[in-house]
Every structure is written in C-alpha cells, then in structure tokens.
UniProtKB/TrEMBL annotation:
One of its GO terms (molecular function) is phosphatidylinositol binding. InterPro entries: PX_dom, PX_dom_sf. GO terms for cellular component: cytoplasm. Residues 1-66, 279-298 are annotated as: Disordered. The lineage of its organism: Eukaryota, Discoba, Euglenozoa, Kinetoplastea, Metakinetoplastina. It comes from the Eukaryota. It comes from Trypanosoma brucei brucei (strain 927/4 GUTat10.1). This is PX domain-containing protein. Residues 38-55 have a biased composition (Low complexity). Residues 69-218 form the PX domain.
Length: 528
C-alpha cells in the first residue's frame, strides 16, 4: 500500500459531518444507500444566514448520514513549542468520546494478512479513559503517521485523507506563516471530522485512544512504538506495492508532495534560499537527485475499456475452484478510472474558482482605494465653507464603498474555507479511494505471481480484502461522497444568496442612498 498522509477556525468542532463554520446539533437519521451514478440527489445543507435582510426563500434542510458521530474533536490554533534548532509547531486537540455503547458495533472482520507473519495489527475492541476533556498537543506529521497506520490496519476501508506537508509547507511552518498554519488546521479538522463517524477507527483500533488521550510526555514514548509497527507494515508490504503504477498521487508516501516542476519559480527560489541559509551558504551546490530505481517487471493490468456501454465491469461472483484474477482487475481498473475521472474534473474546477476569488480580492482592494480617495476628497471639501454639503455626500459615498468591500471580503472568506478548501479536500478524498483500489490491484497481481490457485493463502486474502472493500466502496464511500458534494454545491448557492442579502442591506441602509434620493438632487438637470 502506498500510505496516504495534504481544517477550521479556532474551536471548530465536528458535530455535523458537513458543517464547517457553524455547529449544528441535529439528530442523524437513516439515509438510503445509493451509488454515485443515481440521478436523485439529497436535499442541500441548511444555512443560517446573517439577519441582514428578510427574504421568503429558505435553504432546504441538511443531508443526513446513517452513521452517528462517535467522537467530538476541537482543533485549536497552532502553538509553538521548544526546539533545539527551530520551534516545533503543535496543534492542540480536545477529544471527547460521545456517550454510547460500542457493543452496538461488532468487531470488524479484517482478513489476516499472510505476509504479516502473524503480527498483531491492533484490531480489537479498545478502551477509552473516562471522558475527561483535556487539551493535548499533536504535531501535523504525527497525525499523518497515524492516518498511514490506519490505512495499513484497515485495507478493507477508504481512510479519510491527510496529505503530508510539502517542503514549502515546512518552510511556512518554520516562519509561522499564518495562512499555511491555518490551512493545516483546517485539514486536520476535516480529517478528524471524517474519522469521528468511523466506528472501526473510534472503537476498534487499539491505537486510537492512546493517540488522542495520552499526555504529551507519555505520548512521546508511545509514538515511537507506533512508528516501529508502521515501519514493519512498510517493509512487509514492500513486495506488494512494488506492483503499483501510481506515481505518488496527491497523497503518496511520506514525502511525495514536494516542490515539483509545476511550482512557480518564486516558490522554488524561496525554498532554495531557505536551504542555502540552513546549509550555511551551500545552497548553490544542490544535491543531485537520487537515481530512480529500475522499473520492475510486473503482471500487466488488463486493458479493459472503462465503463463500456455506460457501466463498469461487473464485480466477479464467487467461484469455488478458481479466482477470476482478470475479472477482479478489470472491475477495479474501471473503478480506478471512474474515480480518477471525477478527481481530475473536480481538481480542474479548483484553479478557476481560485482565480475568481483572487479577482474578487482585487476588487476589494480597488474599492478600499476608492473609499480612501473619497474620504480624502471629503476632508478637502470640508475645509471649504461652501463645500460642507458636498463633503457630507462624499463621506457617505466613501462609507458605502467601504461597506461594500467588507461584504465582498466576508463572502470570499466564506468561499475560500467552505467551498474552495472543501473542493480540495474532496479531491484528496478521491485520491485516497484511488489509493485503496490500487492496493487491491497490487494484491491481485502479487497473488498471481506467488501462485494464483484458490487454495493459495495469499489469493484467499486478496479475495477477502477485495470483497470487503467492494462492499465499503458501494455502500458507504459513494453515498457519503455524493452527500458531501451536494452539500458543497448547496453552500455555494446558499452563500450566494447570503451575499446578495448583505449587498442589498448595505445599499438600502446606506446614508448615501437616502441623500441621492433627496428631491433636490433628483431635480437636477444639465443643459446640453
């Protein structure tokens, strides 16, 4: 497996699996399972607009999941700890396990991997300490390692994404750049929000309670044991993931998300300058990249036509004598193509949306400049005895421009966090699904190489993992992904409505509008 490993303002919680800015305490009800391709859509998320103007339209209620939220996480703003060379950044996390009976859930039947040699992978009914709301510091990299461990523990699931930091993120963390730390905080909160609705992780990973409840000193000792197990997972899975054709993806392995050729020259020059400073001025002598390993010959994936005739390959039915390796690979190949198509389309939507937000921010800057200029003009007029009335009008016009800029700024702040960052999160979630599918494909290829008979232990393991991932993908992943995306689209519409209300209120309540409606101004005419 190629383990994955790239949020909310201070105090963000995760009661609502979709909510980002406001906490909604609603009872989760059953939602029928249905695949992504079905045309019927759930109702969009309910928003609570600011009371700036009264309108008749009310956004429809929020979509519901059939899985309750099992834990509550609050991710606070990043804090700096002590470090020998540089400060260490921690994210305080408050964890509260919600009252409930874990016996309502059965222990997940995760297949025993023959290549793990009987190693205890830490799946069993866990024990949380009695609820004591305490704030515990965790590093972003530690959360990435925890997510990677979960992906190894549960190959039958699609674990929510938490991409590793890039080198530029590391640089930004070092200089405590606020926007980078805030983005990391948002990403952590979204990851934990998804973890909180997975009973397998909350109740049956023996590592989860220790990760979220141990005090920092005890955690330092425990996390080393976790890393030893994580390394054991990597080593034992290396022959399997060697068959992967993925080039790291968005999530990739630990340090894949680095500065690439698509990065801007400015970013690369900053990183190079930073490296030169750290290395004592030797940045010009860049280290040669390590030679790429020679490609290993592996069994080829079948070149099935993705979604021929509008539908994917059928999932192979159980066979007592032989394992239909080609059939399994064809099905998962189609699923991978399907997810990749969605991911690429969604990823392509992000840059134009970012451009739209950037242009809006340029408009905000221009409006603020106009407001400042009108204010200065008002001050000049005010100094003249004959300019008092015109000075007042200019001052009111300046105030209108300032309020308009503020309304646009609030709208773009919401768009960035609730829409743009959510789109990026869904892109990485799709990549996490592609990664899980890729691992199953690797299992089938590897089982074929080691002797693909149905009585072979590895073939039986590959089939068991494949069947369980298929059920998870069809019954839970597609449904929840579809609901989240409908929620994102609903937010776009709702925030557009809220923005229109705020702009209308800004104009209607402005003193400048009342001034311009004075009859003596309306009666003014100019001779041609």
């Amino acid at each position: 497996m190629m383990p994955s490993g790239d949020g909310s303002f201070p105090g963000t919680e995760i009661d609502d699996p979709f909510q980002e800015s406001q906490q909604m305490h609603e009872q989760l009800v059953h939602q029928p399972q249905h695949p992504l391709s079905q045309p019927e859509a759930p109702q969009q998320a309910k928003e609570q607009p600011q009371p700036v103007a009264v309108v008749d339209s009310t956004p429809p209620p929020a979509p519901k999941l059939n899985i309750p939220t099992l834990a509550k996480f609050t991710v606070e703003s990043a804090v700096l700890g002590a470090g020998m060379i540089r400060p260490i950044t921690f994210f305080p996390i408050v964890t509260t396990v919600r009252p409930g009976d874990s016996s309502a859930y059965s222990v997940p039947d995760v297949p025993v991997a023959p290549h793990m040699g009987g190693t205890d992978i830490g799946i069993g009914r866990n024990t949380w300490e009695p609820s004591s709301t305490a704030q515990l510091d965790r590093r972003y990299s530690e959360l990435v390692e925890f997510r990677t461990l979960l992906a190894y523990q549960f190959p039958t699931m699609i674990i929510p994404p938490l991409p590793p930091k890039s080198k530029f993120d590391d640089f930004g963390t070092f200089i405590t750049k606020e926007n980078i730390l805030l983005a990391q905080q948002h990403t952590i909160a979204r990851f934990l929000r998804e973890i909180a609705i997975l009973p397998e992780v909350v109740y049956f990973s023996t590592y989860t309670p220790n990760f979220f409840q141990l005090p920092r000193e005890a955690f330092e000792d425990w996390v080393e044991k976790m890393r030893v197990l994580l390394e054991d997972f990597r080593v034992r899975n290396a022959p399997i993931v060697a068959h992967s054709k993925r080039k790291g993806g968005i999530l990739g392995s630990e340090r894949v998300s680095t500065i690439t050729g698509s990065s801007t020259k400015a970013v690369r020059s900053i990183v190079k300058m930073f490296g030169s400073w750290v290395k004592g001025g030797k940045g010009s002598q860049a280290e040669a990249p390590p030679p790429e390993p020679a490609p290993k010959k592996t069994a080829e994936l079948p070149k099935a036509v993705p979604f021929a005739n509008g539908s994917p390959s059928e999932y192979p039915k159980s066979s007592g004598d032989t394992a239909n390796v080609v059939g399994y690979l064809a099905y998962w190949g189609d699923v991978s193509h399907y997810l990749t198509t969605y991911r690429d389309a969604l990823s392509a939507a992000a840059p134009p949306y970012f451009t739209y937000m950037k242009n809006s921010m340029d408009n905000i800057t221009a409006l603020k400049d106009v407001a400042d200029a009108l204010k200065a003009y008002s001050d000049v007029l005010h100094a003249s005895p004959a300019g008092g009335e015109l000075s007042c009008a200019a001052d009111q016009s300046s105030e209108l421009c300032s309020n308009t800029a503020l309304a646009i700024e609030k709208q773009q702040s919401r768009n960035k966090r609730e829409v743009y960052e959510r789109i990026l999160f869904e892109v990485t979630y799709l990549d996490a699904a592609i990664e899980a599918v890729d691992y199953v494909q690797c299992l089938w290829i590897h089982s074929n190489e080691v002797g693909g008979g149905s009585d072979n232990a590895f073939t039986a393991y590959a089939k068991d993992v494949s069947d369980r991932l298929h059920a998870y993908y069809e019954e839970r992943f597609l449904t929840n992904f579809r609901l989240r995306m409908v929620n994102v689209m609903g937010r776009m519409a709702s925030y557009g409505q809220q923005y229109a209300q705020e702009m209308e209120s800004c104009m209607v309540q402005s003193a400048f509008l009342r001034t311009t409606q004075d009859p003596k101004y309306l009666a003014y005419t100019a001779d041609e």
